Structures are given as structure tokens and as C-alpha cells.
Amino acid sequence: MQWNIPSLEELEHYIWRCTACGTCRVAYDFGPPATCGEICPSGSEFGFEGYMASKGKIAFARGILDGTLDLADPEFLEAIYKCTICAGCQSQCQLDHKPYIPEIFEAMRRKAVESGVGPLPLQKNLLQSMKSYNNPYQGPRRLRTDWTRPFKKAKKPIKNLNKEPAEIMFFVGCTGAFNKQAQGIPQATASIFQKLGLDFGILGESEVCCGSTAMRVGDAEEFKRVAEHNLNLFRQMADEKGVKTIITSCAGCYRAIKKDYCLSADYDKLMDGIEVIHTADYLHRLWQEGKLPLQNAVEGTFTYHDPCHTGRHLNKFIIDEDGSELWPGAYLELSEEDCLYDQPRELLAAIPGVEVVEMKRVRANSYCCGGGGGVMTGFGDWATKNAGKRISEGVEAGASDMVSICPFCHYNLNAGAKSIGSAMKLYDLTELIDRALPEK
Predict the structure, then answer these.
(1) Under CATH, what is the fold of the domain 132-288?
(2) HEC assignment per residue over 132-148
(3) Is residue 57 helix, strand or coil?
(4) Which end of the chain has fewer CB atoms surrounding its CB within 10 Å, N or C?
(5) What is the mean pLDDT of residues 360-377?
């Protein structure tokens, strides 16, 4: 299968379009009133500009390309991986390299892996687990369905798509399946689907990681291995089991399938007639159609945290490819039509008893939970500390608890709350919707 995953050398033209203006370092909103705040978790933690946003990281890329900087230097390699790939800097940039910033960061990591020096030791454990178990959690395949036990006990079994047909494939994702603290997310999702009478099934033990983790730490070959498997499996499920829609409650899986898989030359052919949608977006559609009866009250004051992978990572950039408007390659504007900003907020506000308050940094300016880009594995203490900052922002906004639509954010933000002694809890939106829905 042919893939269009660019090398650092192929991105050099865009690397040199950075003017080192520093706009990328701060989240800003013209208002009124105008506001600004930190946007780069790495720059905020480590200070040195090399860690900060695109201004420093782009200098790293230039140094690699001209031979000034050596990827084999342990301190330099670590600096490359001290980044959550949150794309906060990309949201602030208004130059022609804006559409390519996260790709440049990941291309540096791909070059490190290709050179045999990357990723970091702890992250190599993830990749070995991928090769051994098809998941980054070092969990045997038989444990992938542990989260379904309450449904079996209640005699409400979930369809196995390997044996039965269904129109909807619930793609669970590794975090929801193997991380016990996050297992409530697939459980709430499946409970909602059963209450709504949806025709859905899961792949069970045959589900394979989406590959997002491998891609974020720079192992393109491992990503391609699982992505090709999944693309062919999705096609098979559509042809043989009648699957028309793939729904996932995992922001990382959603971003990978919607954006990374599109880099395959066979994507359109293999995904023809199959819709990929996040659970929040799917439920929002049903709610608009009057098919999601949110009747039970869920009392509380909540604030919503935008995951990077369902927000700014899904921006679509309009580029003047042929120079007909400005010049070849000029960045013109962006579309947020695929970003899940409004849908989860509207669903949350529609739940009886819920009061919604907003934090200062939201939507495209949302502050990363600190767990992405391999950071939770490579720098666990920093990931937790950063999550504590976000929890504090939620407390400052007047919320009692926080809501999101990402299992990674769910785990890391709850860990962050504990680290600062906060009683705030991070709920997945599905958990609240499940409570608001009456039994069928």
C-alpha cells in the first residue's frame, strides 16, 4: 500500500517559511476584550525557547537538516520528544508554514526512528507492545473485551462483528479497552447504544490499535502496519457484515482514522460507503433529530475541555497551491467544519440539571491536558503536572467537574486533579449522557 507520509527533507521548503516571530508562543483572542495566555505545555514547563512552540522546534528541524544538530545526542533527542504535539502553536501562527507545523515535529521524530536512535526508551516499550499484542498497553488480546463483562452479566451481550452483521461498528480503542480507569467510557457508549436500540457490534479480541501512538512518536512503519490491517478489515466488515458507520469514543482513534489514514493512496477505495464519526458527533445528530431523549437530571456545574485531536488537529487549511491568489503555497485561511467544538457543548447543555461554565482557554485555544505525543509515557510526572494546571483552570472558572470526549484526557486529567488535591473529576460526555437517558 502506498503512503504519502512526508520526510523532513520533503518539508524543508515549509520549514524555512518560519520567521521566528514568536506569535506561536501565546494563545490570543482579540475579543473584545482581548485575552492571552500560555499555549505551549513544553515551553511553559522548560522555558528554553527550543522547547517552545514552533519557533524553537523549527530551529531544531533546520539544525537537523544542515547537520548542525545530531539526533544521536541524548539531550537533543529528549528535547524533540518533550512536546505533546497539541498543535496549540499552529493555532496561533499566521505564516505559510502554519498548515505543516505538527507534521514537521513528527517528521523529526520519524527521522530519529529511521536513524535508530528514537523514540525514547520508555516509548520503545509501547512500540514493542504494538508488535507483540497489537496494542500499546502490553495487554494480551483476551483482555480487550474485559470492559464488556457487565453487559454479559446483565444478559445484554454486545454483538461480535466477526460472527454477526451490524450496521454500526463501535471501534473501542486501546485506552478504553485496556486502561481500567477509562473503561467506563466504552461501557457508557455501549449502554447508550443499547438504550437507543442501535444495531451495533464490536470487533472484540480481533480489534487492532489504530496506530496513533506509533505515528505520534515517529514509527511510521508500525503505524502503516496496523493502519493497513484496519483499512482492509473495515472494507471486509462493510462487504461481509453490512457495516456502514464506524463510531469511536476515542479522540486519538478518530483523528487517526479521519486524518492519518487519508495519507494512504487506497483510502478512498477501501473506505467507500463507510462513514467514520465520533460518538459525540453521532449523538449530537440524533439529538438534533429528536432521537436522543435526555430526560434524567444530572445536577452539577461542569466545564468542557476540548481535546486536541477532536479540535484543532482537524482543521482544514486552504492553501494557494498554484499561486493564483497570492503566491504558490501561500496559506489563505482555515475551516473548522470538522472540529468538534459546538456538538459536545450543546449536548452537555441539553442535559437537565447541568450548568455549563467556560474556561479562559477553549476551542482552538484550548490548553492541552499534557498527555499526548508520547509525553504521558516518556515524561509521566510532567504530563500529570500539566493536567493539574488545566484542572486548576476549571476550578477557577467555577466548575465542580470537567467533561471531555477523549479517554487519554480522561485518564490524565483525573490524575492531574489528584496530584493537586482537587476534588474535581473528569467525566466523559458519554458517562453523563448515559445517566440522562432513560432505560429503553
Answers:
(1) Rossmann fold (3.40.50)
(2) HHCCCCCCCHHHHHHHH
(3) helix
(4) C
(5) 95
